[in-house]
Automatic annotation (TrEMBL), chains A, B:
It is found in: Cytoplasm. Heterotetramer of two alpha and two beta chains. Keywords: Acyltransferase, Amino-acid biosynthesis, Arginine biosynthesis, Autocatalytic cleavage, Cytoplasm, Multifunctional enzyme, Transferase. CDD domains: OAT. One of its GO terms (molecular function) is L-glutamate N-acetyltransferase activity, acting on acetyl-L-ornithine as donor. One of its GO terms (biological process) is ornithine biosynthetic process. Substrate binds at residues 153, 179, 190, 276, 402, 407. The active site is at 190 (nucleophile). Gene3D superfamilies: ArgJ beta chain, C-terminal domain, L-amino peptidase D-ALA esterase/amidase. This is Arginine biosynthesis bifunctional protein ArgJ. It comes from the Bacteria. GO terms for cellular component: cytoplasm. The record marks 114-115 as: Involved in the stabilization of negative charge on the oxyanion by the formation of the oxyanion hole.
Length: 407, 407
């Protein structure tokens, strides 16, 4: 597996574009498209929220019922959530226009939206944007980057990743882009992630790989615990690499899953580290847990704890808050047995063991916590399972961004 | 039922005190005692956190095994949590000293602590504090207030309430005090609440009443979702009112439960409204839910949502965030059927129905949300069950209080 530059246009046969459509923002690109020259098998995972945005309902139907997908139209600024029948009809109108403009079947067009809930899309501007996207689309790396920029809301950085693998002597590429700033932002932000590949793989196997992998990647990040109405991950594979089909239980499937995991984890970590107002990517790794599920629950409890997040912002080695979060997670353990460490580029320090504080230097711990990427390692000493979760610190700017009147 | 002035000393035979013991704070009272002239039946509920502070373990044992309780010793500044055997031994030493100083059996002494996790108590200062408390104790209203002030940490106001009821012609009083600023603060704050009564009631019935009532009072508040290691509610009844014993299934038990509910709810709301950094008490009332449990889950999801809390701070009528929180609560419902209202002293406004925004004035909604006590009413239109939860807004000061280095 080799990391390469680029994003959704890295794999063969994929084109992308980002254009100014004037949806809500001014003087910035706010619509994007992904297009594949050949039809793609599709896999998707969507928000578990009972309140689902219209584009989520549209895409679920396409992923479940259509034989393939070929284009994705995305807008930033308005989420098209809680918009009733009118909102759903706008998804259909967008797909019809894209089918014409891109020359693909209507039921191969996916749509995604991110932004404010409850507002209707300016559908004529969306349609004009679709035409512009069809004209602008290109297979260059730069075109992928423009798409990644166009889907940002409160994100401060665009998010792209690409990787190459070898499938029986044939080069297969996976690339992706996402926006945040969490799973987890129902107003101005929503998690959207798009992964493209030129691999030859069946829809069933691609779906299986995606569903397994999101448990350890996108579902392990949190910015503020608020699960969005619009969360969408779409994975498209167009088969243009020409590899022999990737089959379950083969070494090639292992390599493909590893590459997919790398792409998903990289995009997920980028989102967590660029959470609203964040100054640090905050990772929690739970080791030696009894079950994988326990490890996931424990690590997520720590990265979701408001008090722990505020302590990370304060570069404060407040292990009591971490222990407290583990304690209310719902997983049973003996607090006297576990050990806690802080780790970053600046070093690693044991801070808690045998039921009491370890003998560590506050100064050293503070130095470790001053890095932009800090980890807590929780050694449960109970079994052999591991999980990692990613979040960010809780800062003044998180409050500022989300309390309009005060900002 | 009649509200009266005072707190833990309102009921007959109860004394209290607050003194400066120099535990951690300077020039303020930081130790408190509650003492009953006669032995009390006891009921208690404690944190569900796996990581339990030493005083929680001590008190659970006393409540379960002792025939009665007669004194409570409380300190602020240090939580005595994650302090191992030494910490538990300090609870015992405190009880022994209090038994001597107050002239009560050792196994009738309860202890409670709130403050920083992981630090050992300065036990000699605690012991000296116990002696001072025994000297200072008094049955005046002022003595109760001094105790309520001494147990504060980041609280900005002391919290007391008292109420009188009539039990077959005999006046029975219930009084209480608490500190916050939530359930829910493992470092500087912990929920501690103490309720005293002169009622004649059995331990079994008192325990039943308390366990039922906390589901709708203390367990329905949240400041930041972090369940403390020290949360403690103790209810003591010394029987000195001389009423005929309150029995289950009688009108008198109904009156007693109503009074207990009033005391608990008042203390709980005071804690939520004085959450760390809070500028407003934020209430969510769910009506017409299918089950009581659904109503509780839905209302708590809204008051726990960081984005909704930030919107309340911003006086922003962001109903999308509320709908989103209801949607990820785990309760199934049809978003097209429910209705949302904002309400405060300044008025009431319908903001969402039939799946889309209602026709309301942003200005009016902003005026309603500018009050220090604001409510969201969620009409599920599914059944007949109701629940209310209380939280507070998420502010810059919450971050400031909890990110030491930055403040």
């Amino acid at each position: 597996m080799k990391a390469v530059s680029g994003g959704v246009t890295a794999a063969k046969g994929f084109e992308a574009a980002g254009v100014e459509a004037g949806i809500k923002y001014k003087e910035r690109k706010d619509m994007a498209a992904i297009y594949s020259r050949k039809p793609c098998v599709l896999a998707g995972t969507f928000t578990s929220n009972v309140v689902k945005a219209a584009p989520v309902m549209w895409d679920k139907k396409i992923v479940e019922e259509s034989p393939f997908g070929q284009a994705v139209i995305i807008n930033a600024g308005i989420a098209n959530a809680c918009t009733g029948k009118e909102g759903y009809d706008y998804c259909k109108q967008t797909a019809i226009r894209a089918a014409e403009a891109f020359g693909v079947p209507e039921n191969s067009v996916l749509v995604a939206s991110t932004g404010v809930i409850g507002m209707q899309l300016p559908i004529e501007r969306i349609k004009a944007g679709v035409d512009k996207l069809a004209d602008a689309k290109s297979d260059t790396i730069e075109a992928g980057t423009q798409a990644a920029k166009a889907i940002m809301t409160t994100d401060t950085r665009s998010k792209e990743v690409a990787v190459e693998i070898d499938v029986k002597g044939v080069k297969v590429t996976l690339g992706g882009m996402s926006k945040g700033s969490g799973m987890i932002h129902p107003n101005m932000c929503t998690m959207l992630a798009f992964v493209t590949s030129d691999a030859v793989i069946s829809k069933e196997l691609l779906t299986k790989a995606v569903k397994e992998d999101v448990k350890d990647t996108f579902n392990m990040i949190s910015v503020d615990g608020d699960t969005s109405t619009n969360d969408t991950l779409l994975v498209m594979a167009n088969g243009m690499a020409g590899n022999s089909e990737i089959k379950e239980g083969t070494p090639e499937y292992g390599v493909f899953k590893e590459a997919l995991h790398y792409v998903n984890e990289t995009l997920a970590k980028m989102m967590a580290g660029d959470g609203e107002g964040a100054t640090a990517l905050f990772e929690t790794k739970v080791i030696h847990a009894t079950t994988k599920e326990d490890a996931r629950i424990l690590s997520k409890a720590v990265i979701c704890s408001s008090l722990t997040k505020a302590a990370i912002y304060g570069h404060d080695a407040n292990w009591g808050r971490i222990l407290c979060a583990l304690g209310y997670s719902g997983v049973m353990f003996d607090p006297e047995k576990i050990a806690l460490y802080f780790e970053s580029k600046a070093g690693k320090v044991l801070i808690y063991k045998d039921g009491v504080a370890a003998d560590y230097s506050e100064e050293e711990a503070g130095r470790i916590l001053s890095e932009p990427y800090v980890s807590v390692i929780v050694d449960m000493k109970m079994g052999n399972e591991t999980a990692t979760a990613w979040g960010c610190d809780l800062t003044y700017d998180y409050v500022k961004i989300n309390a309009d009147y005060r900002s």
